[in-house]
Specification:
By secondary structure, the chain is an alpha+beta fold. It folds into four domains: 19-139; 157-252; 267-340, no CATH class; 352-487, 3-Layer(aba) Sandwich (Glutaredoxin), CATH 3.40.30.10. The protein contains 17 helices and 17 strands. α8 (277-288) packs antiparallel against α9.
């Protein structure tokens, strides 16, 4: 009888998930080029990543049509509630997307040397986009704001350490914030936003402003005397919602500001000495005071995950404190899994890691043989890994950009050789494509504490590890900063 009940509940859950699954439909339109593939569309990426799950909206191509010189690709995105997100056009267009949205997006490629906003500000995008249809106002707001007041995520107003003009910085930032807020109000009057979209837009502007105000406190070696700051400056930093999980989950700047504020003003975070055991305890104590368990658990787990990546160790006192405050069992399991892998990693040298066997379509070799006279980026992926596949096109764009300066190595962690070969053929990975034997049990995986993918590892000319956990290639700005330094 128990078995019957279990099967019933299992199938009921599948039916319920299917019943309540919701989708947004986007029709991407672009001028066809001779080398254009049969479809043309972008991933849509949520801002909030819970440290375990993929933050890409699940997508499915529904239809592809060609009319004269225009290709239209219809894509459905699985989404159960409204959220701010990024259309993955390299630098990314921020949008507010909701279930049951239907919109046409015409993508016009900027010409080299002509990517400008207002004829003065360099555009952060590869394509400029025009939105038409249901919810077009929600999707077009941030692009429209950027054309007049600069893109929120690529601002050119920032504080330079040592110029002692922090009051001027405060006034300039405040004027920019007010200008953007007034624009959002005018935009809403002319192009009515949904109530939730208006709420998120106002919040994004507010917390991008507060993030800008708090940025001088993060500059190593730069001391700020609070008595020298205008009262309005300090009041602005403190006047915000402390436990708003809706904004934490569905916007970009709220969570970043809340963590920075907590680190600096509640934990006396020492920016010149990062992630010592003493600091970890101060930070965990500060996070434990956050009332919302989802936010508290996220910040605490993110802290320990960063500590393990940087130092490969966590004190028993810090770990005990973490386990006493973290209520999310999934996060506790993640940290425990990372810790269990540490002894293996510590016992293997980098030289031994590079002796891991790999196979190509032709023969068997060693990782060490791939490192020659130029730096390499190792893209760790597998045929079954959806986030890996979603990132692959960004890796290829970077590979083309740094051609003959940096090699990109595609290293599969598939167990089945045929799965690897078939997916490689489908993705058109013709060169520098290998499968590592023993996958996550290999010396390479043990050395780099690699138990999940995607993962991006950058190695310099002299077989030195430049970054063992590089950003996602879709975070183009962060990734290119690392690579540009390598080739100077």
């Amino acid at each position: 009888m128990r078995i019957v009940v279990c099967y019933f509940l299992f199938f009921l859950s599948l039916y319920t998930n299917h019943l309540y699954a919701q989708y947004a439909i986007v029709n991407y339109q672009a001028i066809a080029k001779e080398n254009m593939k049969n479809n043309f569309y972008f991933d849509i990426i949520r801002f909030h990543d819970d440290l375990m799950d993929d933050n890409y909206l699940e997508s499915k191509i529904l239809n592809v049509t060609k009319n004269n010189d225009t290709v239209t690709t219809t894509v459905s995105y699985k989404i159960n509630s409204p959220t701010c997100a990024i259309i993955g056009d390299g630098w990314g267009h921020e949008i507010i997307i909701s279930p049951n949205d239907t919109v046409n997006v015409f993508c016009e490629k900027y010409l080299p040397g002509q990517r400008f906003l207002r004829d003065s500000l360099l555009s952060p995008w590869n394509f400029k986009m025009a939105y038409k249809g249901k919810s077009q106002a929600n999707l077009g707001l941030f692009d429209s704001l950027a054309y007049l007041h600069g893109a929120l995520h690529h601002d050119n107003l920032f504080f330079k350490a040592g110029n002692n003009k922090i009051k001027i910085f405060f006034q300039d930032a405040t004027n920019q914030y007010i200008g953007r807020r007034n624009y959002i109000i005018r935009y809403n009057a002319d192009n009515p936003l949904s109530p939730i979209a208006l709420k998120y837009a106002i919040a994004e502007n507010k917390y991008s402003y507060l993030s800008k105000l708090i940025s001088p406190f993060l500059i190593p070696g730069f001391k700020i005397d609070l008595n020298d700051l205008p009262k309005e400056y300090i009041d602005s930093l403190y006047q915000f919602e402390k436990n708003n999980y809706d904004l934490f989950k569905n916007t970009a700047f709220y969570s970043a500001y809340l963590q920075t504020f907590t680190d600096i003003f509640k934990a006396n975070f020492n920016k010149d000495s990062i992630y010592t055991d003493g600091q970890n305890l101060h930070l965990l104590n500060a996070y434990s005071l956050i009332k919302d368990n989802n936010i508290k658990d996220y910040f605490s787990t993110k802290l320990l995950k960063t500590q393990l990546r940087l130092h490969k160790t966590i004190s028993s006192k810090t770990l005990k404190k973490y386990r006493s405050i973290c209520t999310n069992k999934k996060y506790v399991f993640l940290i425990d899994s990372l810790i269990k892998s540490q002894p293996k990693a510590a016992s293997i040298s980098f030289t031994e890691a590079l002796e891991s066997k790999i196979i190509s379509s032709k023969d068997t070799t060693y990782l060490d043989k791939l490192i020659d006279k130029i730096p390499i980026v190792i893209d760790c992926w597998a045929s079954w890994c959806k986030p890996c596949i979603a990132q692959m096109k960004y890796s290829k764009e970077l590979e083309e950009k740094y051609k003959n300066k940096i090699d990109f190595i595609y290293l599969s962690f598939d167990k089945n050789v045929e799965d690897w070969k078939n997916k490689s053929k489908e993705l058109n990975i013709e060169t520098n494509n290998f499968l590592i034997l023993q996958n996550f049990k290999s010396g390479f995986a043990n050395y780099f504490n690699l138990f999940s993918i995607p993962r991006y590892i950058i190695i310099g000319k002299g077989k030195t590890v430049i970054d063992a956990n590089a950003p996602m290639p879709s975070k183009t700005e962060s990734f290119t900063k690392i690579l540009d330094k390598l080739i100077k």
